[in-house]
Amino acid sequence: MNPNDGLLSAGTPDVSAPARSTPPWQRITVGTPGPEFEALPPGQYDFDFPDTECDGWSTGELAMRYASVRGAKHRYYRQPRQDAARAAVHAATGSVVFAVADGVSSASDSEQGAIAACRAAVERTLHLLDGAAGPVDLRDVACHAADRLCELARWRLGGRNPEFSEVADLYATTLVAGVVRPRPEGPLVELCRIGDSGAWALDRSRGQYLPLFPTKTGTDTLLVSGTVSPLPHVPDPLERTSRRLSPSEALVIATDGFADPLGDGDGQVGSLFARHLTNPPSPLWLAHLLDFSRETFDDDRTLLTVWPTAPGGQG
């Protein structure tokens, strides 16, 4: 008698059977594609910054997905991905807390600054939500992230208190951080920004992107500037905003590796993502989608989205 007889149920695949050939996902092309090549490994001590990462989960009222991919330029020149994202749920309130960062290329270890800023922002927001009935003190969150970069620099310099310029030279990074709180009248978004990463409310029924901060290319911008004032600098006043999401809207946060090809959202990139973000995709599919090929757009890309999933929402 075969000892395995009867162990396979009707719903269990027979691993002894020949595997079916499944065509691999082909990289998505938008317009004219960029060059295709095998990615080169980053430096030997950059193993903590993988080429691609993604995450996704849902509460009873909100769904979260994020993905971050290394851009073609960094893949070619053996540099690590300098973008980062982190998200968590605040258990007592069901709020989704998030942070997205884009390490500034001129800083020598900006990938470490980006991930440290995200971790510090999420940790501090979760702590503040424990005792906050009103708006979260986002300036406190931003300052906590800046302090974390200073601590990192102090450790790097052997315990010596760093000059501001030394922190920036090592770990400068942009940051968008905030929270989405479930409410009976609709999810409430509170967020702040340092640098040039972006945020939008995506109207899923129309495929339209409403910028929540001034953009580089929109009609709300009089002059396009490449100047970025990143962490550890915390401006006063801090750039911040809030918005209540309608059932048909989703919150979209992204670094400029996505924002630049998105533009005003009325082109091919905007159409592609509006279609695929109508409902929460699988995290792996979001990462695949974000790694689209388009000529001249070779920066790291990070995208984080939150959808309402409560009754009345479309998520």
Could you please describe the fold and organization of this structure?
This protein has seven helices and eleven strands. The chain is of the alpha+beta class and 315 residues long. The protein has a domain at 52-78 and 87-102 and 175-308: 4-Layer Sandwich (Phosphatase 2c, domain 1), CATH 3.60.40. A six-stranded antiparallel sheet has the order 1-2-11-10-7-8. A five-stranded antiparallel sheet has the order 3-4-5-6-9, with helices on one face.
> β content, as a range?
15-25%
Radius of gyration: 21 Å
Instruction: Name the strands of the widest sheet in spatial order.
Output: 1-2-11-10-7-8
Q: How many helices in DSSP terms?
A: 7
Protein traits:
315 residues, alpha+beta, Phosphatase 2c, domain 1, five-stranded antiparallel β-sheet, 11 strands, 24% helix, disordered N terminus
